[in-house]
UniProtKB/TrEMBL annotation:
An example molecular function term from Gene Ontology annotations: 2 iron, 2 sulfur cluster binding
InterPro entries listed in its UniProt record: ATAP (IPR016092), ATAP_core_dom (IPR000361), FeS_cluster_insertion_CS (IPR017870), HesB-like_dom_sf (IPR035903)
Source organism (scientific name): Halovenus aranensis
GO aspect biological process, one term: iron-sulfur cluster assembly
Stretches that traverse the bilayer: none
Pfam families assigned: Fe-S_biosyn (PF01521)
NCBIfam families in the record: iron-sulfur cluster assembly accessory protein
Protein name per Swiss-Prot or TrEMBL: Iron-sulfur cluster assembly protein
Gene3D superfamilies the UniProt entry points to: HesB-like domain
Highest taxon of source: Archaea
Length: 120
């Protein structure tokens, strides 16, 4: 389902303003056009709990991606990943423990001890 429109009820990914600002700054640092390019959020096999999150910048969405826009940031999610992460919030955390993006996923039933992988 390729869309730049509002996704169907219940299938949404949210992005905090802080996460959007950080991602947009990184996109611009890579000289990517933030009107077309975006952050790809996906789920992959791996980690001690079975699944892990992945993120990368893409110049444009794939044909079957769902596209979310929050605070000027475009987020691309493929259909298979959407099954695991719908309803999630992408946040950015800073501090003494390190900085980085974090996915708050309401579908997770357990995480590994390091917090890098999960099970739904």
């Amino acid at each position: 389902m390729s869309t730049t429109e509002e996704p169907t009820q219940g299938t949404t990914i949210s992005v905090t303003e802080q996460a959007a600002e950080e991602a947009i700054a990184l996109l611009e640092g890579e000289s990517m056009d933030t009107d077309i390019a975006g952050l790809r959020l996906y789920v992959q096999q791996g980690g001690c709990a079975g699944l892990s999150y992945g993120m990368r910048f893409d110049n444009e969405p794939e044909e079957d991606d769902t596209i979310f826009e929050h605070h000027g940031l475009r987020v691309f999610v493929d259909p298979a990943s959407m099954n695991y992460i719908e309803g999630s919030v992408l946040d950015y955390e800073g501090g003494l423990q390190g900085e980085g993006f974090h996915v708050e996923n309401p579908n997770v039933v357990s995480e590994c001890g390091c917090g890098e992988s999960f099970r739904t």
